[in-house]
């Protein structure tokens, strides 16, 4: 008997292979869809180019170079186009084209159908984030992340939140054309209330607390704090942190993310649709 067969049951291995094939197919279809490609890849590419163009302008944000502030925020913000916008468009279009219904009639399980798309979107996001990390380390003088494990936990938890939100909102979106409108509330809140580009320190305390409860803000807090090794939570004092202190400082943000995972999972189960609306 092949030793690997005792470690990975054949059914589980076959399921994982199906998910990987679906993920690869999703990436291929995205490449062929120029309109979707512009939103999912073009927007992050524009932000990356702007980092290079703005480097060295001498401006500061939150006590550090403004470009470094924005770059660490970009690592979190790319969840919106790469995961949320991407999956909302994919699930809405495939539902209306009856593709989801046909896939359900085959050998694939629901988890495999959804997992392939979520995996492709997450891998795309991680690739985009890796580009920003390279820019930070080589061009912006920010070095490598101080706590890559915590940073990775925050990024993957954020990917889970925005994947589930994409599923939920797709169920509320009547057509693929209207998906360009239904993404706007999440996109605008993420840009205005997360602090990924502009610090939230100048806001009244109540507004700061409210901003910390939005889905992207805890990811920004975790990524920036873990990357720079300083307290860059919304109400933080930017003090240098040790390894355990970094995790302790980010516990509230991790708790908010855990709550968003639960809330978005409930919303996805309630609103996600496999078939088009009738009537």
UniProtKB/TrEMBL annotation:
- The lineage's top-level taxon is Bacteria
Compartments, as annotated in UniProt? Membrane
* A biological process term (GO) from this entry: response to antibiotic
Q: Specify the protein's topology with respect to the membrane.
A: Multi-pass membrane protein
**Under the GO molecular function aspect, what terms does this record hold?**
ABC-type transporter activity
Keyword tags: Antibiotic resistance, Membrane, Transmembrane, Transmembrane helix
All copies of the ABC-2 type transporter transmembrane domain together span: 23-226
- What is the official name of this protein in its record? ABC-2 type transporter
Higher taxonomy = Bacteria, Bacillati, Actinomycetota, Actinomycetes, Streptosporangiales
């Amino acid at each position: 008997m092949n030793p690997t067969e005792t470690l990975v049951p054949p059914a589980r291995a076959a399921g994982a292979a199906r998910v990987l094939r679906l993920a690869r197919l999703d990436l291929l279809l995205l490449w062929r869809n120029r309109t979707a490609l512009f939103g999912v890849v073009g927007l992050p590419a524009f932000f990356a180019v702007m980092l290079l163009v703005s480097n060295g302008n001498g401006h500061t944000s939150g006590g550090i170079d403004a470009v470094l502030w924005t770059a660490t925020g970009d690592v979190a913000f790319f969840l919106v186009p790469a995961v949320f916008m991407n999956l909302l468009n994919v699930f809405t279009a495939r539902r209306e084209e009856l593709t989801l219904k046909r896939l359900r009639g085959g050998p694939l399980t629901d988890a495999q159908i959804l997992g392939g798309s979520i995996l492709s979107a997450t891998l795309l996001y991680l690739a985009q984030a890796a580009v920003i990390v390279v820019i930070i380390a080589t061009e912006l003088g920010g070095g490598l992340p101080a706590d890559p494990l915590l940073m990775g936990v925050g990024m993957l938890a954020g990917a889970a939140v925005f994947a589930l939100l994409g599923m939920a909102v797709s169920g509320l979106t009547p057509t693929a054309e209207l998906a360009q409108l239904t993404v706007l509330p999440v996109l605008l809140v993420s840009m205005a209330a997360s602090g990924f580009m502009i610090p939230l320190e100048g806001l009244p305390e109540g507004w700061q607390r409210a901003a910390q409860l939005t889905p992207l803000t805890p990811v920004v807090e975790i990524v920036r704090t873990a990357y720079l090794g300083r307290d860059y939570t919304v109400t933080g004092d930017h003090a240098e942190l040790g390894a355990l202190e970094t995790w302790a400082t980010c516990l509230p943000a991790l708790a908010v993310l855990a709550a968003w995972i639960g809330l978005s999972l409930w919303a996805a189960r309630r609103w996600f649709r496999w078939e088009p609306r009738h009537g």
